[in-house]
């Protein structure tokens, strides 16, 4: 028998792409580069696709690099690939852009509903300071926060999910059967969530299930199974309220 959302004790969240609108944040942060080069030929879809591929490569090559430095490196490589001129100052500005990335409009209200029924935990591919800046937009206090800086690698490395499950046990007394992993990215999150036997909720903000547009997220060869599918976090909060009645 399929489990219900409320059969779980903890929601483990990806943040960027799920709670924070990282694609809009990335696109906004690329604008100084495009303006400096008077570039009118690079559109959002192309820029995000190049970013997604380069970020994945950089995270694999330098797993211990802090996220601001990693973003700066990706910006320099993105400029080179798009045949644009950049500067170290523009690269660093892009690297420091995470605090400016906006939350999705439904995020804070949905999280306030969900915190009444679950423990809330973050498993993020950023550094501690970057998430702390974003957390001020999310409207809730999380029960635990685990970042790439804490772990020393970036999702989808298996180590990140091993760390998550180890610390859920030691910090919160929770087992894998208690977890509903909630995320947008198939590449970063859902492939490994299913590999570790976790129930999962896909927040398909890109409507990838219908459109096939990958945006800033690296594509996967085969779509992993998902236990729940919602297009927004608000839809998920509504579904929880409906279960409770």
Main attributes of the structure:
six-stranded parallel sheet, Rossmann fold, DNA polymerase, domain 1, 11 helices, alpha/beta, 245 residues
Short description, anyone?
The chain is an alpha/beta fold and 245 residues long. The protein has helices at 22-36, 44-61, 67-81, 88-95, 107-114, 128-135, 148-151, 158-172, 186-195, 208-211, 233-244, and strands at residues 10-13, 119-124, 144-147, 179-183, 199-203, 228-230.
Layout: helices, strands, pairs:
Layout: E1 10-13, H1 22-36, H2 44-61, H3 67-81, H4 88-95, H5 107-114, E2 119-124, H6 128-135, E3 144-147, H7 148-151, H8 158-172, E4 179-183, H9 186-195, E5 199-203, H10 208-211, E6 228-230, H11 233-244
Parallel strand pairs: 1-2, 1-4, 2-3, 4-5, 5-6
Helix pairs in contact: 2-3, 3-4, 5-11
Please explain how this structure is put together.
The chain has 245 residues and is of the alpha/beta class. The protein folds into two domains: 158 residues, Rossmann fold; 79 residues, DNA polymerase, domain 1. Helices cover 48% and strands 11% of the residues. The protein contains eleven helices and six strands. Strands 3-2-1-4-5-6 form a six-stranded parallel β-sheet, sandwiched between helices. Helix 9 links the parallel strand 4 and strand 5. Helix 3 crosses helix 4 and helix 5 packs parallel to helix 11. The longest helix is centred in the N-terminal third of the chain and has 18 residues. The mean pLDDT is 95.
């Amino acid at each position: 028998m399929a489990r219900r959302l409320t059969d779980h004790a903890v929601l483990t969240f990806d943040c960027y792409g799920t709670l924070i609108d990282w694609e809009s944040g990335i696109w906004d942060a690329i604008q100084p580069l495009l303006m400096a080069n008077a570039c009118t030929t690079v559109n959002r879809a192309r820029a995000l696709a190049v970013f997604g591929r380069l970020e994945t490569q950089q995270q694999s090559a330098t797993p211990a690099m802090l996220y601001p430095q990693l973003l700066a490196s990706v910006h320099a490589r993105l400029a080179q690939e798009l045949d644009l001129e950049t500067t170290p100052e523009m690269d660093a500005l892009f690297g420091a852009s995470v605090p400016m990335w906006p939350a999705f409009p439904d995020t804070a209200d949905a999280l306030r509903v969900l915190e009444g029924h679950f423990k809330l935990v973050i498993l993020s591919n950023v550094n501690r300071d970057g998430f702390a800046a974003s957390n001020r937009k999310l409207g809730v206090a999380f029960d635990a926060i685990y970042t790439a800086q804490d772990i020393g690698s970036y999702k989808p490395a298996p180590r990140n999910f091993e760390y998550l499950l180890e610390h859920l046990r030691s910090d919160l007394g929770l087992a894998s059967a208690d977890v509903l992993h909630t995320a947008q990215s198939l590449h970063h999150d859902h492939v490994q969530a299913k590999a570790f036997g976790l129930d999962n909720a896909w927040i398909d903000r890109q409507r990838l299930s219908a459109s096939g547009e990958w945006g800033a997220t690296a594509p996967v060869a085969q779509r992993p199974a998902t236990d729940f599918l919602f297009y927004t976090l608000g839809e998920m909060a509504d579904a929880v309220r409906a279960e409770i009645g």
